[in-house]
Amino acid sequence: IRRRWLDNHFYGLTYSHNYNPNERFRAVLGGALSNYNGRHFGEVIWTASQGEQNTPPIYYDNDAEKLDFNIFGKIHYQLTNKTNAYVDLQYRMVNYSFLGLDSIGLAADQDIQLHFFNPKIGLFHQTDANRNVYTSFGVGHREPNRNDFTESTPLSRPKAERLFNTEIGYREQWEKINFGVNLYHMFYKDQLVPTGQLNDVGAATRVNVDNSFRAGVEFDARV
């Protein structure tokens, strides 16, 4: 019988600076920096031949570190009394240090660094006191998770996925009733999906799908 443990330490900081020179223009510069240190280890607490282990031996011990940094700038501009536009630009860097498998399946210390640029633009229009419409387009990235790195070799690891997201919405707001409808289209490049397949070292893993999408309409109301 085995017992698996995590001994985690997470710390970081966030920061932002607001700049509002007039009623039409608002800007924010901000970001975050965080570091995760995780010890992954397992103990054998009972065996058929020796029974309960008073001092359980450790059968695996793996340290991992993830450094996550991002910086963004966001600008809101009042085009007219009823129309507002915004631009949001973010740069993100992720650095993984871990014990994984090399190209021939042997354990080796590894270091991977990923860089992402995530822009977003949007337009908001207040048609009258109770109704508004909006539209936005953004690009986002998602990196592979820990298992994608540690349970594969460099030849079989998936790439980060990229999302192109477009939304158009309409909303009515009254004193006691709130109603909205939102249309969305999400186009993925290299989407990370589980397929049930095994990688080149026999572990279940996620793979990249070259092109995929989700599209739909959402309704919500509140009374």
Estimated structural class: mainly beta
Query: How many individual helices?
Result: 1
Terminal residue distance? 54 Å
Number of strands: 11
- Beta-strand portion reads over 45%
Rg computed from alpha carbons, rounded to a whole number of angstroms: 24 Å
For the largest sheet, list the strands in their spatial order: 1-2-5-6-7-8-9-10-11
Essential attributes:
single chain; 223 residues; 11 strands; 2% helix
Task: Please give a structural write-up.
With 223 residues, this protein is an all-beta fold. 2% of the residues lie in helices and 76% in strands. The protein has one helix and eleven strands. It has a nine-stranded antiparallel β-sheet with strand order 1-2-5-6-7-8-9-10-11. Strands 3-4 form a two-stranded antiparallel ribbon. The protein is elongated and about 80 Å long.
Brief write-up:
This protein is mostly beta strands.
Summarize the SSE layout with pairings:
Elements: E1 2-19, E2 25-44, E3 46-47, E4 51-52, E5 58-78, E6 83-101, E7 107-128, E8 131-142, H1 146-150, E9 161-173, E10 178-198, E11 204-222
Antiparallel strand pairs: 1-2, 2-5, 3-4, 5-6, 6-7, 7-8, 8-9, 9-10, 10-11
